[in-house]
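To: structure subgroup
Subject: Chain for Friday's discussion

All,

I'm putting the inputs and outputs inline so they're searchable in the archive.
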Amino acid sequence: MIREQLTARRLAKSVADVVEGLELRRPAVVTRALLAGLLAETGSLLGPDAAAERLVREGWLLSLRTRDAWEFVPAARAGRYSSGDPWIELRAVLAHRPDAPVAVAFESAVWELGHGLHQPEVPVLAHRRGWRPPVALDLMRSATYDWRLPTWQKDGLPVWRAATVAVAAAHRPDVQGDWANADHWLSEVLRATTPDDVLAEAEGRGTATLARLGHLAEWSGRHDIADRVEELLPGPLPVSYLGPRRRGGRWVNRWRLYDALLPRR
């Protein structure tokens, strides 16, 4: 049955069993190591380089910028068409280096978490200090950031958790995009996390970050998070940080944020 479905494109006999194996596995990215394993399983005399060249020529693999990695084009696409996956190069990098300290971050993480109004035009990722993104990822926007909480996996990609997104927005507001729609995504992100996770992610951050984080939490209606963050702040703060805001019939000291940063509610 599978072989009957593989006739829309030319399929040389020498790689037919390899394509059948790929159809069964459906990997988004095919590495040289995966090809070598399939060739060994099928008893083919072809080497992985020759098999890859033939599969690219016949339209079953698409070349990527990442070396020794290709995008698989299953028969269901009925042609040499890419999936349009904006993360295909990141997937290729992770296929070679699964422990690379990189993650989907900032507004891209907002989208992948399901809280964004639109997908960012340019994918955004973050990497830990000391790691240099390969050239294959230079079409993406990247930033150095040391997050605390472990990422979660979505479709094989490491994605920041909601608490990390919230704290990073306060710590690096210059990198965080889509502030124009913050009245939607910021509230959603903070509703999707807990005070404990936010504090774990905020541990060790500076006073300015905590002040902004407290303001963002209160502005989003997460007064429980704002109260916990306030406990971390040292003593009295300069007036540039503080401003009275009324809540529940009493005046409390809360943090101001530049009006240009957040839309008015």
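Points worth raising on Friday:
Strands lie at 29-31, 61-63, 69-72, 102-104, 124-127, 141-144, 152-154, 157-159, 242-247, 250-255.
The chain is about 40% helix and 15% strand.

D.
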